[in-house]
Specification:
Blueprint lengths: L1 H19 L3 E6 L4 H16 L3 E6 L6 H12 L6 E3 L3 H8 L7 H7 L1 H4 L2 H7 E2 L2 E2 L1 E3 L1 E4 L2 E4 L1 H7 L7 H13 L3 E3 L5 H26 L3 H4 L2 H14 L11 H10 L2 E5 L3 H8 L9 E4 L7 E4 L2 E4 L5 H14 L2 H11 L2 E2 L11 H16 L2 E3 L9 H16 L5 H11 L4
Parallel strand pairs: 1-2, 1-3, 9-10, 12-15
Antiparallel strand pairs: 3-13, 4-5, 6-13, 7-12, 7-14, 8-10, 8-11
Helix pairs in contact: 2-14, 2-16, 10-12, 10-18, 12-19, 18-19
The chain binds beta-D-glucopyranose.
Beta-D-glucopyranose binds next to loops.
């Protein structure tokens, strides 16, 4: 009885303490598609459970280009949100502006250094201090396929680029759109980097697209990559320009298209539509990339705030994001895998398990590479210019691969 009373008193005190410090937290993100929105709701509910108020700052637009434009104007006008979905080298760019908050106390208490792979932890730190917290690991080099559509055309899901074009011809003849695509720069580049990895291999990928080595950017391999990339366009439909990625995924879900090259946030769409992996849809590494892994890590950068209650809410958000409960529920909806090491994977499907295994294997083998399309490696100015050049090539019928190489090499020098 006394123990019960003590427990109740402790609970009452805890919730009173939580309420006394209840703060509002405004979170900028671009998770508005089906699976993404479910994952974002998981974050909101997690935070609300600890007594804080959530203010949603969603800016629609896959890949986050619109969100980043809105964020810049908010920060410039001195009205930064508490947290914003910022990734890769952009975290350093924002930290250099002196606007991010130091999260070392949370990181120390929660042992982030021990729970994160060092390659990930380094990106979250500026001058050795945590200024951002990671949510997940997305694999980008995936091919999502509708097996019923493949069966109808009598072809199998391709594992090489040769098989890809053979299958695409058969699918076209069978009257379906072989490749569901959305003509937006970041989606064009998602396809481009998959081709670069599959046709050029990891060493080429690193030299050309991560180190931006001028010789690799203007090489016979690059020419072959660009020619292969442009061939893919013949298998997309007339309505591709401007289409959102999730609408392209919906084409595969409905069987109007056979496959999509996209990161595993696409799985979030299949799952949100009630589809079962391995039965209604299959995941396969993009052609020629089975032994490589293009990673894209979502993270939240935390901005400097003045109000003590808001700071308390912000620290609680950072703490919760790395907690095992959140890492599980969020990633089950998002299509990604937990970034926290040592998490049980029993509730995850085969695509996620394969991703987790390949993440570890490729890290050991040196074939784990950052996604350029998703802001993981190249400073943002060069990344934007390179994406523009690649999309110009995709959209301009008379541009040769050699002209495209010149433009991409020039874009890579953008500072
Ligand atoms: C983000 C994902 C998001 C996708 C589509 C990527 O850049 O990392 O979280 O689902 O864009 O919006």
């Amino acid at each position: 009885m006394t123990t019960m009373k003590n427990t109740l008193t402790a609970l009452a005190l805890a919730s009173a303490a939580a309420l006394a410090h209840a703060g509002e937290i405004e979170v900028l993100h671009w998770w508005t598609a089906g699976g993404e929105a479910k994952a974002a709701t998981a974050l909101k509910l997690t935070l609300q459970k600890s007594g804080h108020r959530w203010r949603d700052f969603a800016v629609a637009g896959g890949g986050g280009d619109s969100a980043m434009t809105v964020l810049k104007s908010r920060v410039v006008s001195g009205n930064a949100p508490s947290a914003a979905q910022i990734k890769g080298p952009s975290i350093q760019e924002w930290a250099r502006e002196g606007v991010l908050a130091n999260m070392d106390d949370v990181a120390r208490a929660e042992k982030w250094n021990e729970l994160l792979p060092p390659v990930v932890a380094d990106v979250m730190k500026y001058k050795g201090s945590y200024v951002a917290v990671p949510v997940n690991v997305h694999r980008v080099n995936w091919l999502w396929a509708n097996p019923a559509v493949f069966a109808k055309a009598g072809v199998k899901v391709p594992t090489t680029w040769d098989e890809f074009f053979t299958a695409a011809d058969a699918l076209k003849k069978a009257g379906v759109v072989p490749v569901a695509h959305g003509g937006q720069n970041w989606q064009d580049f998602t396809t481009f980097e998959a081709v670069a990895l599959g046709v050029g291999g990891t060493d080429f990928y690193k030299k050309a697209l991560v180190q931006l080595d001028p010789a690799a950017l203007k090489s016979p391999t690059m020419e072959k990559v660009l020619t292969t990339f442009k061939r893919v366009k013949d298998y997309t439909d007339r309505n591709a320009p401007g289409r959102d990625w999730n609408l392209a995924t919906a084409m595969v879900i409905k069987g109007e298209a056979a496959m999509q090259i996209m990161g595993d946030w696409a799985k979030g769409e299949f799952v949100a539509a009630g589809k079962v992996p391995g039965k209604d849809f299959v995941c396969a590494p993009a052609p020629g990339t089975a032994r490589a892994f293009t990673f894209n890590i979502d993270s939240f950068a935390l901005f400097q705030l003045k109000d003590a209650d808001k700071i308390a809410a912000q620290k609680e958000l950072a703490r919760q994001i790395m907690a095992p409960e959140f890492q599980e529920v969020f990633n089950l909806n998002k299509g990604s895998i937990p970034v926290r090491m040592g998490m049980p994977m029993d509730k995850f499907d085969d695509c996620a398990r394969q991703s987790a295994k390949d993440f570890g294997d490729t890290a050991k083998a040196g074939s784990l590479v950052p996604s350029i399309a998703h802001g993981m490696a190249v400073p943002s100015a060069a990344e934007g210019a390179i994406k523009d050049a690649v999309s110009q090539f995709w959209n301009t019928d008379k541009m040769s691969a050699s002209q495209a190489m010149d433009r991409i090499a020039a874009a890579a020098r953008t500072r």
